[in-house]
Design brief:
5-stranded parallel β-sheet; 17 strands; 29% helix; globular
Length: 417
């Protein structure tokens, strides 16, 4: 399924992409998961080491020399024991109860757990095959050099990554929900180690678990901050064993995001934040992000503001056009996610849009610069891991005099009719 819509929302920072083997070599491991929780036979010791498995289990040894620290994300946590770690997703889907997953290092015996963890799924890591329900997961693999574990996506049509599209085309990566309906039989037949969800529930998940397939929730879209969403790269790394590389990737994103936010704060201190209008209507309703959401955080950090910035919630407000126009109709900049070829298309979609100041001024910006013919949009894919790039685009379009020569990654201006 496609990545979840976000704000139609810094200079691009290159991210080194080592091979999976190189990423894990720093941990003294190479990539492959072992399919048993027992220590492998002595005859298989060489293969076990090559697979990153423990060959001679020592209960006193710490098998996680590199540990991830979660600082921004609010919806997941990681706890390390010597031979396993506990990944807990606090809200696996809206209003869902917390779920914990016990990630056992390959070659270590399964721990005997009690209490809340007694019934938790136990997963051998690093995993060797993963099915992904959302395109937002893909950069978490490509940017940490662990794409080889990807064996299934919901639908290749929504994928932006050329690397992943090639794998789908070659048959290395299967499609299991091309019609937006999960084909449980197909997934069970493929026997992936893990199916990672897109942060919503599905009636087929219990069937997958009963068949021995671990279902792990990824609910980054419920995070209240852009950096919190990006930090889910560490949750993925807990499954793939790429903790060190994930930390490097996130540290770069965090640093570059802070630089752009600091420049925006300096710019605003010398003037006023730019008023902006985010989103469009769908079936007569304008879904407006609350100020406490990651959308509100992005706009604020870019040196912008909007009439609903004071709303503390992290969800969306359902408004009609009249309410939006009364408070935000005079905003000089409008951010949308539509593939309009000109502002005439906006007016054609709804004639009332023609009343907006941003339309008459020709300052309508869309996040569809990277839109693919099949519907995939890298803004909803790579943009989740790279809020630094999103923020840079926003800062440049809100404060063009402070970002001359900026090359836009996701946004492009809709030509004035």
């Amino acid at each position: 399924m496609p990545g979840r819509p976000a704000i139609p929302v810094p200079v691009p920072v290159p991210v080194r992409r080592p091979t999976a083997a190189a990423a894990l070599l720093a941990l003294g491991l190479t990539l492959t998961a072992c399919g048993t929780s027992e220590a492998p036979p002595a005859a298989d010791s060489r293969a076990s080491k090559a697979a990153g498995c423990i060959s001679d289990f020592d209960p006193a040894k710490d098998y996680f020399p590199v540990k991830s620290t979660v600082e921004h994300a609010k919806n997941f946590s990681l706890r390390y024991e010597k031979s396993y770690q506990v990944l807990t997703v606090k809200e696996p889907f809206p209003k869902g109860r917390p779920e914990s997953y016990v990630l056992v290092k390959c070659g270590a015996p399964k721990p005997k757990l009690t209490g809340d963890l007694a019934a938790a799924q136990q997963i051998t890591v690093p995993v060797k095959s993963l099915y992904s329900a959302s395109t937002t997961h893909l950069p978490l693999l490509t940017e940490t050099g662990t794409l080889d574990v990807l064996t299934g996506v919901a639908s290749g049509a929504f994928v932006s990554s050329a690397e992943v599209r090639d794998r789908v085309k070659s048959g290395k990566v299967a499609e299991y929900a091309k019609d937006n309906t999960l084909n449980a039989e197909k997934v069970i037949g493929a026997k992936p180690d893990v199916l990672m969800t897109q942060g919503t529930d599905d009636p087929q998940y219990p069937k997958l678990r009963q068949a021995g397939i671990a279902v792990v929730a990824n609910a980054e879209w419920l995070e209240p901050s852009p950096l919190g969403r990006a930090e889910w790269v560490k949750a993925m790394a807990a499954l793939t064993g790429a903790e060190e590389r994930a930390g490097e990737v996130f540290d770069t994103v965090e640093s570059d995001y802070a630089k752009v936010a600091a420049k925006a704060a300096t710019t605003v201190s010398a003037g006023k934040p730019v008023k902006v209008l985010p989103g469009t209507m769908y079936q007569g309703t304008w879904s407006m992000a609350s100020g406490g959401s990651y959308v509100g955080k992005l706009l604020k950090d870019a040196g912008g503001t909007y009439p609903w910035a004071g709303e503390k919630g992290t969800g969306n407000l359902q408004l009609n056009f009249e309410a939006v126009y009364a408070k935000g109709g005079d905003a000089p900049v409008w951010l949308v996610g539509e593939q309009w070829k000109s502002t005439a298309d906006a007016v054609k979609a709804d004639r009332r849009y023609g009343k907006l100041t941003s339309v008459t001024a020709g300052e309508v910006w869309t996040n569809t610069k990277t839109q693919q013919p099949g519907g995939g949009n890298d803004f909803y894919e790579r943009g989740v891991l790279r809020p630094d790039l999103v923020l840079s685009d926003l800062f440049a379009l809100l404060h063009p005099d402070q970002a001359k020569g900026h090359t836009f990654t996701f946004y492009t201006k809709v030509p004035k009719a």
